[in-house]
Amino acid sequence: MLGPVASPVSFLGPKRYNEKILDLIEELPPIDAVLITHDHYDHLDYPSIQKLKSKAAHFFVPLGVGAHLIRWGVEKVRITELNWWEEIQFQGLTFALTPSKHFSGKGIFNRNSTLWGGWVILGKQTRFFTSGDGGYDAHFKEIGEEYGPFDIALIEGGQYDRRWSWAHMFPEQSVQANVDVKGKTMMLIHWGAFTLARHSWTDPIERALKEAESKNVHLIAPKIGETILLTESPASPPTSWWNL
């Protein structure tokens, strides 16, 4: 989702802090695969798919999400849908859809009509995990036992509130989730693009950094758009670029 607004209409809804990211798709090289975690507007965006569908060779999605892509002009043959714990081989990699504690839907009449989840990508040299959205629960330990350890784990840790704590983790829970999945390096995600909750923009990363230090977790926080190499060890604690 690289569009400027997390909403079904362009004139209403949460706006991205940097609204100029969508056009960067045109500058990207050909993409072998796009992996989507669920169909909420801040994760699956019509303008983004319109630009990506001529750039990406294949789309991997949870069950039911393919219908959105087909409706938006992506050929069915270029879409693979997976259930939780299902695996597929792709260009020498293993992709697996993992459980998460969340929900789905793009409208009031299709809530939970599609699946949601996280993704594991296993290569010969690198093991990668992204949690997708979701609350903290025992599934993280199950993922760690099945697929861990991971060279890097991207863990959701923003847009939280006690009223929906089942659907989004607090930063301290995010750090524990990384411990559970056996992430060697952790990156906090889902906090830098939109305001979807009442906490401040910097609260997620600052709380996560404090918790990571107490649990001896290697947490990285690259600048938005920055490239990192997993063969290198980024500084920990990271530079507080969000306060500059």
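(ticket continues) Second input and output from the same batch:
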Amino acid sequence: MKIDNPNPIQWQFSERAAQLQSSFIREILKITQRPDIISFAGGLPSPATFPVERMKAAYDKVLSEAGKVALQYGPTDGYAPLREWIANSLSTEGSTILPEQILMTSGSQQALDLLGKVLVDEGSRVLVETPSYLGALQAFSVYRPEFKSVDTDEHGLVPSSIDAVAKGARMLYSLPNFQNPTGRSLSLERRRELVETCARLAIPLIEDDPYGSLSYRGEPMPKMVAMNPDGVIYMGSFSKVLTPGIRLGYVCAPLPLVRRLELAKQAADLHTAQLTQMVVHEVVKDGFLDQHIPTIRQLYSDQCQCMLDAMKEHFPTSVSWTEPEGGMFIWVTLPQQIDAMKLLEQSLAAKVAFVPGAPFYANDPASNTLRLSFVTVPPERIREGIAILGKLIAGML
């Protein structure tokens, strides 16, 4: 029997809940689910790269041979064989990573949240690139930091600009490989300068690396965590090299920090799914990624080149863009008088979607920028969508 409720609850949300905002990209993705939309908006891996049969076989094997273990609660820090595999993959001749430094997370997005929870107080200074990954800005914003933007140029983050904003900084968040949203990568020289600068200033450096394996040349750059394991926090994910649906990421951190992150994770979700971790270990343990990742690189490289060629053909000469050597994104800079939000309105009416650049800025957004993703769109649709965008941009000049 339903009870009469003469006094409906007047919900009193926390100040933290009141300031939560939806991801702009997630809102656009609701629109782009329609099959008639050519979507350059999502940062989604191509489903063509998902190793469905390999995953299915791994699930069958794990459930058949260790089902009772896989379906049970697991340790907060994660499945030990998988943590050992990750530690070995991160270790180099001059730098050994211990399995104890690895914490498995429910996607790398949880790692961002845990880092914010453990390192950031209200008003704490957090250094970010200009522009930066929207998901990181969203995760850290919950803890009410003071974002300070570090300068970037056509080659990415400028390490020499850190000193001017370093005072009191709790951490610097960076994506050195094929950055989301710009597609830029840091040179080896800048990586060393960045690590040395953060070490000199005693600022923890977060190296978020979801795209590092997706170099079109097949030669990933050295990881910064190997340059200074005591000062660099490395974040990795299986989303871009296997499938995002498994929601499996990890963080590698110095032992004092990783223990704090583990306590924060205990409070959040106890542990990441044991079954998922055991399945992923079964898939990767014998070198599968060495054969699988090159097929992803080739697909993405071909589609990136298709988009770049179409942009050269159809975009006005007053438009500029990055030419990434890996990853999933191209960053476009429009003439100053064009607002990408207004362009998006016209573009959606013409059934083409992209992400305006402004939400990727922690401070002083550039309204004449936008991000294009090419990996889920077939070549013929890439050419069609870019031609439409080029015509719309020309009409706004």
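Agent notes: Residues 288-314 form the longest helix (27 residues). Residues 176 and 186 are 5 Å apart (CA to CA). Closing as not reproducible unless the customer responds.
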